[in-house]
Amino acid sequence: MAAPFALSLQDLAPIAEGTTTAQAMAETILLAQEADRLGYTRLWYAEHHGMPSIASSVPEILIGSAAAHTKDLRVGAGGVMLLNHAPLRIAEAYRTLEGLFPGRIDLGIGRAPGGDGHAMRALRSGGGEEFSAYLAELMAFDEDGFPRDHPFSRVPVSPGGIRLPPMWLLGSSGASAQAAGQLGMGYAFAAHFSHTPPAPAFEAYRYGFKATEAFPKPKTMLCLSVVCAPSDEEAQYLSHSQAVSWALFTTGEQRKLMSPEEAHARVLTPQQQSVIDHQSTLWIVGSPETVRDTIAEKAESCAADEVMITTTMHSYELRRRSYALISEAFGVAGR
């Protein structure tokens, strides 16, 4: 079955119990090379802070590393949490990446902090009401769009002679969708953790879309959480690592990603079990056939142009196998 949509993946650089951070970093390169070989369209890294189980705190470093070790795969941020950074800093970083790897970089922008309140304070993150101002400033730096009397009009963005890579707005609401359409960006919907239906947001995005050089036509991406194994039973077993780790994180216990054996043995509180019962309805878990059919149904229900898959699994080897099984199920041509 050839998918009527592009397939991509997201890597949070998980740090599994029994492994070191150095091993998790090395795995980002192995996964990028495997994604390139399997024929995935793009690989994105998310920005997270203060989480012992996730090593993707600085996406641009991982992007540069992955791009240097691959040939055709597009690599980008999914996304940069803009309120954590001075817009000029992001403009410089992603122009640099675009200069190093022309035509292979993406810049996904999100408004969430990527961490808890303590991390926000440590990052001196801006308030949510400032996001539109941060985004406008970033675009003004890229387009030399500040008024002549604005103090930033005298700040040349370095390196010069390069534009920012294609920009995507990340979100899970009609408001973010409308903003992405009006700005002529791509739009990625976070269906891997949001219970909001994506179809109305995609419709709002397409309705208000204004073409730009980077996006002559609207481009929608559906982000899904998927665990795939040769059988439904094995996939369900492996998915316990994600389920229990999510429940512990949500209830204030942070640690590395536990093994499925430990996850099965863990005694959960009623609150933690309710977290799993609620969130697991968003997770796609099963054999290649089960996963393929469910992904296709979700993508077709909202006419997504692209599906981005994130897989949380304790074993790095089995996580790579999961992505390989999915690409094979959809008949993606390897490189």
TrEMBL record:
Membrane spanning residue stretches: none
Domain of life: Bacteria
GO cellular component terms given for this protein: cytosol
A family per Pfam: Bac_luciferase
Stored InterPro entries: Bact_Lucif_Oxidored, CmoO-like, Luciferase-like_dom, Luciferase-like_sf
PANTHER family, A to Z: LUCIFERASE-LIKE MONOOXYGENASE
Protein name: Luciferase-like monooxygenase
